[in-house]
Amino acid sequence: MKNKTIVLCTALLCTLLISTPRAAHADVDNLLSDTSFELKLPPDQGGWILFDESMFSPDEAHSGSQSMFNWGFSRSVPYPPYFVGTVSGSFQEFPAGPGSRWQLTGYGVTPTGLKGAPAFGIVQVSFFDALGNDLGTVETAGSSTPLARTSNKVNSQTPAGEWIFLDTGIATAPKGTATVQAFTLYVDFSGSDTSQGVYFDDLNLCALKDDSTCESI
Predict the structure, then answer these.
(1) In a domain, 162, yes or no
(2) Residues 202, 63: Cα–Cα separation, whole Å
């Protein structure tokens, strides 16, 4: 466990302390290990690093018999800001240089439907310098800024029980980039007073060349 990092998860100021060992490559095109969470590899074998309320789950699967479940409990309180939120997730980290181009895709589902807003699950690509400073986050196809935007998500408008294709679009690493982290994330600041979350499966992280995309390389 190396660096403490700050993940920009939405326009809300959400921070979380996590560590960042390097994950092993799974195959030529998809850099992620255990992309459908079947192996449940530990981090020191290149597997997923889980934080807060996250777990491997047999309850839902887009393929195989396992998925990643990121969840949490957001409660309302009688004082500003009138809710207490949660951010949970999993990630893997890889070396990256300035100007490198990345795309993360996958699938997400909520079996019973999410209550309240903001409450959503996303896949996310974040860039960090050699000291672990967060240089920016992109989780929206077509975004022209490294700052997080709340799209590419499973939320209260998503049909319950339907696996949704998630796509960060192409994210270009900014100046000073040393690593890239690929995340599944669940964010809940709804104050809904209920435990809820999103399942993720079949993720694909591509280091892009020329005009390629994850689907074409």
Answers:
(1) yes
(2) 7
Q: Please say whether the beta carbons of 31 and 205 come within 8 A.
A: yes
The structural domain count of the chain equals: 1
Tokens of 110: 């909520």
More confident residue, 116 or 24: 116
Q: Is residue 8 part of a domain?
A: no
What is the Cα Rg of the chain in Å? Answer: 16
- Kindly report the CATH number assigned to the domain that includes residue 70: 2.60.120.260
User: What is the token pair recorded at 47?
Assistant: 């597997």
How would you class 153 by CB atoms within 10 Å of its CB: exposed for 0-12, middle for 13-18, buried for 19 or more? buried
Strand-pairing partners, residue 75, are: 84
Q: From residue 22, give the alpha-carbon distance in Å to each of 19, 32, 180.
A: 10, 11, 10
Split at pLDDT 50, 70, 90, the class of 143 is very low
Does any domain span residue 16?
no
Read off the tokens for 30. Answer: 């998809």
Q: What region, left, alpha or beta, does residue 132 occupy, with left being phi > 0 and alpha being psi -120 to 50 degrees?
A: left
